[in-house]
Amino acid sequence: MSRDLPDGYEPGSPSLVRHGSHWRLHTPVEKTFTSPGKVAVQLAHAQTRICAIDLNLDHHLAVCTIQTADGSTVATTFLSGGKRVNGRRKWLLGRIARNRRKTGILAENEPDNVALWEKIRHVDEQVAHLISARIVHFARQHQASVLVFEHLGNLKPQKGRYSRRGNSKRAFWMKGRIFTNAKYKAWNEGMITSRVNPRNTSRECARCHGLIVRYHAKQGPEPAGYTPGAPLAWCPACGMKGHADRNASVVIGQRLRTRVHHQEKPRAPLLGTGERDEKSSGVVRSQDANSKGGPSRRRARRHGTGKGHGTAHEDHARMVAPSAIPRPLPLFSES
């Protein structure tokens, strides 16, 4: 190889990888390390730190907070560049839309605007690698061992023109690429990755878990207002004020700890109507058999067996109606 490998790394088996119309020879570099423990095992230690990431589509592509096992926030970073990426992608998609209007109907499976689509893919790939690398670097800098993301799988693009709708779709795809790249990069650094439920992470207050109000600086907070994508947050219940994306990042870390602590709770014993006398017998005794008195008439009547046809109670039987069964005649007279 043309350069020396760092200590502890060894070259792996090379492989051919096709990239577009070109073939490339990839030689992996391998390192042996001890596998980190699961999330529940790591959060059992007080010195464990997690890095909670809130991915966005606006100016800040990612907001990361370092949190301890007891819930304290140690550090926060804002990774910007979203407006520049969205503007570049929207401009390229607009050129593709104008070219398609000039071209008209294309044949089936015929590619169009290949160079422009390649530029869009290259921009998204580059930004996904840069943001994921900065996330892992920030987590390693503050000794975090767990990365926490939202489980975003059902995002739908906004309605509008082709460039606006396509821009949202590509932005959602880039968010998925950021998670995928951060996952394998974190594993190479000895960190694991987890995801939590994204429901209302941007609407929940990290302090009192009430509903927050999102607003712009020039707009001012309103008691019942919520502007999606606004940078500032205010909670009417507890009076918390701060950055909305940072608040969402703290909520993501809280949900991971809540999920782990909820799984550690012991199961409640099952309530049954009977008890087993011995493990080897397999015989179940009912409550009536365990009680000192006889069977309950009220319970039997509720189940349809109280004073029914031919049911005996207290050593005597009573027929409610005469029997409809015909009585056979004797064949011989008795003398």
UniProtKB/TrEMBL annotation:
It comes from the Bacteria. Residues 295-306 have a biased composition (Basic residues). Keywords: DNA-binding. One of its GO terms (molecular function) is DNA binding. Residues 178-252 form the Cas12f1-like TNB domain. It holds the Pfam family Cas12f1-like_TNB. The keyword DNA-binding applies. Residues 256-335 are annotated as: Disordered. This is Cas12f1-like TNB domain-containing protein.
